[in-house]
Amino acid sequence: MKVDILAFGVHPDDVELGCSGTLIASVSKGKKVAVIDLTRGELGTRGSADTRKAEAANAAKVMGVHARENLEMADGFFQQDEVNLRKVIVAIRKYQPEIVLCNAPEDRHPDHGRSSKLVSDAAFFSGLVKIETSSNGVAQQAWRSKYVFHYIQDRYLKPDFVFDISDAFERKMKTVLCYTTQFNVAENDSEPQTYISNPDFMDVIRSRALMFGKRIGVRYAEGYITTKMIGITTFDAFIQQTT
Ligand SMILES: [Zn+2]
Predict the structure, then answer these.
(1) Does residue 238 belong to any structural domain of this protein?
(2) 183 alpha carbon to ligand 1 midpoint, in Å?
């Protein structure tokens, strides 16, 4: 199945926190979108791999994405080796996205930076015809996506561009809240509180989106980093829609 956008996250919930507004807005404009989680998030302090799996499936429905897969790498311990590079290459060649979204190059969680490099390197290698891969026994064609963009998640990084998610923001918050074991949990909950489980963390997500939106004169936005120069053929793309 070919998609327009393929969004990778190392943990189920990274995509929701970092770029779900973009995905929701894109789906509403008729774009095809798929999500790939690299790990099951099994090292998370709260919940389990099974609860995360159910939560991720619910969030995929709220986002309206066309597919979501999990590559089952080892949370915390995955490395950039041939096995894992090939897993990502197979996924990219399967979905043939024009745009790849992935974790921030550096972040509070060390997995995010490693995932960022793994996915962006695999996106390059996916275009090399001499790397042979197959999916369900069928040989795959090489595929080079046009852009790899890194979504800004926890640590503040200066974005190269921001994506207007004003109309998608409340649904973005719903996708985050699908992770009932992770976010917005009561203080007297039986499992330990974490950096992200306090209800105040929801205000942090909203504040970040407000701040990025303010920079372009809209209500909410998500921020991205690109290492590849963006080229245009018309200034229309830079003219804000102010409906
Ligand atoms: Zn994460």
Answers:
(1) no
(2) 13
Q: Which of 108, 112, 106, 50 is nearest to 75 (CA)?
A: 112
Cα 15 to ligand 1 centre (Å): 9
101 CA from centroid of ligand 1 (Å): 14
Domain range spanning residue 43?
A: 5-232
Asked if residue 240 belongs to a domain, the reply is: no
pLDDT digits (tens, 9 = 90+) for 221-240: 999 999 999 988 988 877 76
User: Structure tokens of 141?
Assistant: 């064609």
pLDDT at 243: 43
- Tell me: the pLDDT tens digits for 10-45? 999 999 999 999 999 999 999 999 999 999 999 988
Answer whether residue 36 is part of any domain: yes
Q: How far is the CA of 181 from the centre of ligand 1 (A)?
A: 14
In contact, 168 and 33? CB cutoff 8 Å: no
CATH number of the domain within which 222 lies: 3.40.50.10320
CA distance 6 to 120: 12
